[in-house]
Write a structure and sequence with these properties.
Blueprint: E1 3-4, E2 9-10, E3 15-16, E4 21-22, E5 27-28, E6 33-34, E7 39-40, E8 45-46, E9 49-52, E10 57-58, E11 62-65, E12 78-81, E13 86-87, E14 92-94, E15 103-106, E16 111-112, E17 117-118, E18 123-124, E19 129-130, E20 135-136, E21 141-142, E22 147-148, E23 153-154, E24 159-160, E25 165-166, E26 171-172, E27 180-183, E28 188-192, H1 194-199, H2 204-218, H3 224-234, H4 239-249
Parallel strand pairs: 1-4, 2-5, 3-6, 4-7, 5-8, 6-9, 7-10, 8-11, 9-12, 10-13, 11-14, 12-15, 13-16, 14-17, 15-18, 16-19, 17-20, 18-21, 19-22, 20-23, 21-24, 22-25, 23-26, 25-27
Antiparallel strand pairs: 27-28
Length: about 260
């Protein structure tokens, strides 16, 4: 059974699965698809080619509207949101552009706190937390289990690695490697996210290997490619270290300094 408040507008063509609730004064566009047991709270605006998964909660957010990109010329693009995602008040999520694959995508179990902005072609992984008033520019990638503190701005094309943590009120202009912490304007790496890794059950030996890797890569005078080769050989049995090394080697914007 679908429940739609009398003051809500649901355009013909919208697909609402069983258990969906649409609150007062919300607007659901004709191309929108909403999965089972998702709740759309009062005042939400969801339009364009937007797919929302199951058991999500959408407060008074704006999702699927045209991107703020002057190169956008109306080409068909979309927003895809996974399962068990919470989108709080006044969040904005813009659909993709031709320059970024035409998709803005958010994974499962994501929390987007109030006033966050998710621009065109952003890719957010699973179990990510984006705090209040974070501004994510176009083409940014935020990997699984990352946390971004409130009032932070993230430059376009930046990548935030998995299990990384960005402190509040930061300005992130370069990539943040996985498992690390970054903070400041401009953001600098401050070490391995030890507390976060412990909370998620990473073994002590893995955390020690990552900590040693960080020291060997960022607290040395030798070229970074040489340091990466050394830690790659020393810690080759730790997949997390290999992820760290490969992330840095594949960076196009460069890595935040330590």
């Amino acid at each position: 059974m679908v429940t739609i408040h009398p003051t809500a507008i649901v355009e013909s063509g919208a697909e609402l699965d069983e258990g969906v609730v649409v609150g007062a004064f919300s607007y659901i566009g004709k191309q929108v698809k909403i999965g089972k047991n998702t709740v759309i709270r009062q005042g939400a605006v969801i339009e364009g080619d937007t797919s929302i998964g199951e058991e999500c909660t959408i407060f008074g957010a704006t999702i699927g509207v045209e991107p703020q990109d002057l190169k956008y010329k109306g080409e068909p693009s979309k927003v895809i949101i996974g399962n068990r995602v919470t989108v709080r008040e006044y969040v904005t999520i813009h659909r993709g552009t031709e320059g970024g694959g035409l998709i803005t995508k958010i994974g499962d179990n994501v929390l987007l706190m109030a006033y966050a902005h998710i621009a065109h072609d952003v890719i957010i992984g699973n179990n990510v937390i984006i705090a209040n008033s974070v501004q994510v520019a176009g083409h940014v990638v935020i990997e699984d289990f990352a946390i971004v503190g409130g009032l932070t701005g993230i430059h376009q094309f930046v990548r935030i690695g998995k299990h990384a943590m960005v402190g509040g009120a930061s300005a992130v202009h370069r990539d943040v490697p996985p498992f690390t912490m970054a903070q400041g304007n401009r953001a600098r790496l401050t070490g391995i996210n030890i507390v976060g890794l412990k909370r998620r059950g990473f073994p002590r030996k893995t955390i020690r290997a990552l900590t040693a890797t960080f020291e060997k890569v960022f607290k040395t005078a030798e070229p970074i490619q040489i340091s990466l080769s050394k830690v790659e050989e020393e810690f080759k049995n730790f997949p997390e270290v290999m992820d760290f090394v490969n992330f840095i080697r594949s960076s196009k914007r460069g890595i935040c300094p330590a």
